[in-house]
Amino acid sequence: MKNAVGKKQLIELRHKLHKQPELSGNEEKTAETLIVFLKKQHPDLLVTAMGGHGILAVYKGETPGRTVLLRCDMDALPINEISKLEHRSTISGVSHKCGHDGHMAIMCGVASKLARNRPLHGTVLLLFQPAEETGQGAARIIEKLKYSPDQCFALHNLPGFQLGSVITKAGPFAEASKGLIVKLTGESSHAAEPQCGNSPAAAVASIILYLERISDNSTGTIATLVHARIGEVAFGTSPGDATVMITLRATHTKELDFFSHRVSEQIIKTAAEEHLMCNLSWAQEFPATINAELPNSFIRESANYLGYQMIPLTRPFLWSEDFGHFTDEFSGAMFGIGSGINAKPLHSRNYDFPDSLIPVGISMFIEILERSLKL
Ligand SMILES: [Zn+2]
Ligand SMILES: [Zn+2]
């Protein structure tokens, strides 16, 4: 059997994926590229078009045993990449600014290792998951998944941490979050006679101030205004409707439910005081990612064994990950790999996944499999 695919080929694959970024749910070409690569890695089973453009590569051991799932994400972001990089995005307004291109290259590297060195016992599931950024992909995949993994793992590259370090924490790792869309309806009127209508402007102002008052960074319970629109752009008209969009987050999914209820009640009360109709709807729900003790200990042991610097977290990340759907359903854990102290932040238009993390991610996953598949 030939040697595993080398680092250079995996970097080329990452650059190819980076050049053809696709938004959540539209990962068609990305999937095509991955399928071509994965077929050459001879999985025992290759499931495509899973929950959209998702792919599952299955590697079976000689004897039965545990089933372990490793997951990476496939989608890019609606961000215009301004860069001199040779592998910069060729799609205007879309780019890989969360490093999911790197996550896919890592998972392809794991496939190549498993093709040459299949597990002794049990089954490994390599999952390429679409639509992470919108929080829809994981739930759709879990619905279609015909396996019930004993453990599942995922990683995310993390700027602001030492390059190649491993960051993890048992218990809550990333917060729960969800989007709230508030639609307020009053009555428009001539701008010369605002008293003849009922503008939602004062209610919007009051809601925005309320959100600032109730957010508490120290506990991670945060309500962030992400968008607001009052009426249309027309100097002759006093507005009659408004939309406010808010992202709510909390450490645990249950806490988020409680917080959401509290915020909704206040908004409904404000709207009633202003005699406005109020309609609330929810979007992009991410459960908290909760790392179970045992899989988290495998992450720690693997990092120690490989000699990677371990950075234990004292509190969960404030951002959310739809891997939370997996840790909700199965025993699992997520970890970060540092992209460098001075790396640009995720989702910033200058961010690019460091290629040097590809071997770090592969070796971490291979060591984790070694431990989690052991009978
Ligand atoms: Zn992201
Ligand atoms: Zn991401």
SSE diagram, text form:
Blueprint: H1 7-19, H2 28-39, E1 45-50, E2 54-60, E3 63-73, H3 100-116, E4 121-129, H4 137-144, E5 151-158, E6 166-168, E7 171-174, E8 176-185, E9 189-190, H5 201-214, E10 222-230, E11 237-238, E12 241-250, H6 253-273, E13 277-286, E14 289-291, H7 293-306, E15 310-312, H8 324-329, E16 332-338, H9 357-372
Parallel strand pairs: 3-4, 3-5, 5-16, 6-15
Antiparallel strand pairs: 1-2, 2-4, 6-16, 7-14, 8-12, 8-13, 9-11, 10-12
Helix pairs in contact: 1-3, 3-9, 5-6, 7-9
The chain binds zinc ion (2 copies).
The site of one zinc ion has 5 residues, from loops.
Describe this structure in words.
The chain has helices spanning 7-19, 28-39, 100-116, 137-144, 201-214, 253-273, 293-306, 324-329, 357-372, and strands at residues 45-50, 54-60, 63-73, 121-129, 151-158, 166-168, 171-174, 176-185, 189-190, 222-230, 237-238, 241-250, 277-286, 289-291, 310-312, 332-338. With 375 residues, the protein is α/β, with parallel strands linked by helices. The protein has 2 domains: 7-171 and 288-372, Zn peptidases (Aminopeptidase, 3-Layer(aba) Sandwich); 176-285, Alpha-Beta Plaits, CATH 3.30.70. The strands form 4 sheets. It has an 8-stranded mixed sheet. The chain is elongated, with a radius of gyration of 23 Å. The mean pLDDT is 96.
